[in-house]
Structure formats: structure tokens, C-alpha cells
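testing teh design pipeline on a random one, pls ignore if ur not involved
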């Protein structure tokens, strides 16, 4: 099983967040971690249908690529997740993954009756995002979504790398310092998990 799963949440294979996440993956591998990469746009994952088939076992009953992915996420000690800002939150691909993890929320809070806030982090997450504009609140919406998504994975947010004023594919390549920061973060993330 991999130590880290890297999830690409942008529809663009070679977009800004993908380039940053690639660097983080490289950094983690340089530190000796096994990293699996998943492009959400390659998977067939239905949105949550709100049928609560997960109520009995905590497992989502929709049979699609989410099943394999959630097992990989739960088997990893670290998640590197990258999503662009779309309408002040995560991309639709990322949001669909989050919504399907409502099954984990049901397992944790309805079936196992964990008290809110009374859990120990067993995983760590590195989150990467980029948006076109430069506003102070650009990442506020998505960070709230990330907080509660990571909660169901018993995951603490280890670090968030957030970049403003990146719009067109390849824009990030004009900022080698951003790519270096992502590479370094990947390395440090792996070292923290390998401790
Ligand atoms: C559907 C859509 C919605 C977007 N919404 C926002 C937004 O709310 N705020 C913003 O600053 N940029 C927004 N953008 C721009 C992207 O965040 C930006 O181009 C980003 O660099 C894309 O990252 P990627 O190359 O990894 O996909 C949007 C782009 C698209 C396609």
C-alpha cells in the first residue's frame, strides 16, 4: 500500500494545480515515500445520490470507481489533494469525491457515534490550490470544505499551499519559486509521515 495518495482534482491534466502537485509528488518520492497518483477526471464517480444506503454499514452502496479510491485513501497515511478554485470552492470533480465520503461521515458519527471533535488524527493531508484572482477571501470557502472533508478521513490539515493570480494552463511555470515550494513541501510531508 502507498504511504501517500496524490489526488488530482482539476479537469486539466497539465494545469496549475496539477503541475504543483506533480512537484509535491516528486518531492515525496525523493524522500523515499511510495506515492500513488489518481486523476479524478479519469474515474467514473457518480455524485452522492442521498439515498443513505450507507446507513447500515458506513459503506457507500453506489458501485463505481469511488469504491477503490476510498479504500486507497483509507489505506494511506497521507493525502495530497490539489484542486483549483471554482466559484470559491473546489472543482466539481473534487466535490463529488467529498460528497461520496458522506458515507464515512455516517460511519463515524451515526454508526460509531464518535463525539464531534473527539477523534485522534490518524492521517495527514497536504492541500494545494490555485485561483485566477487575488482576493483575500479567495480560499476561505474551499478551506471550510476541506476541513470537514479531512475530518471524515480522520485527517489533519498538515499544510495548505494556496496560490493567487494563476489562470491559464502553464501560468504556474512562470513562478519557479511556487514549484520549488511544492517540491519542498512534498519532501517534508513524506519525512513527517515516515517518522
Ligand atoms: C468553472 C470555473 C470556475 C472558476 N472560478 C473561479 C473563482 O471563483 N475564483 C477565481 O479566482 N478563479 C476561478 N476560476 C479560475 C481557476 O481557478 C484558475 O484558472 C486556476 O488556475 C485553474 O487551476 P488548474 O489549472 O489547476 O485547473 C475558475 C475557473 C473555472 C473553469
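output:
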Amino acid at each position: 500500500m502507498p504511504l501517500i495518495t496524490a489526488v488530482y482534482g482539476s479537469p486539466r491534466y497539465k494545469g496549475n494545480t496539477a503541475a504543483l502537485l506533480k512537484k509535491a509528488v516528486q518531492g515525496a518520492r525523493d524522500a523515499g515515500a511510495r506515492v500513488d497518483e489518481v486523476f479524478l477526471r479519469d474515474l467514473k464517480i457518480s455524485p452522492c445520490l442521498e439515498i443513505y444506503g450507507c446507513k447500515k454499514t458506513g459503506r457507500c452502496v453506489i458501485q463505481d470507481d469511488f469504491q477503490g479510491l476510498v479504500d486507497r485513501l483509507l489505506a494511506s497515511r497521507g493525502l495530497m489533494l490539489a484542486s483549483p478554485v471554482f466559484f470559491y470552492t473546489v472543482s466539481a470533480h473534487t466535490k463529488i469525491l467529498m460528497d461520496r465520503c458522506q458515507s464515512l461521515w455516517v460511519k463515524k458519527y451515526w454508526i460509531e457515534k464518535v463525539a464531534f471533535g473527539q477523534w485522534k488524527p490518524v492521517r495527514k493531508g497536504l492541500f494545494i490550490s490555485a485561483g485566477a484572482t487575488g482576493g483575500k477571501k479567495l480560499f476561505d470557502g474551499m478551506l471550510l470544505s476541506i476541513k470537514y472533508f479531512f475530518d471524515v478521513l480522520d485527517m489533519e490539515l498538515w499544510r495548505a499551499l494556496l496560490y493567487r493570480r494563476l489562470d491559464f494552463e502553464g501560468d504556474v511555470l512562470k513562478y519557479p519559486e511556487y514549484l520549488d515550494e511544492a517540491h519542498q513541501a512534498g519532501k517534508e510531508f513524506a519525512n513527517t509521515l515516515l517518522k
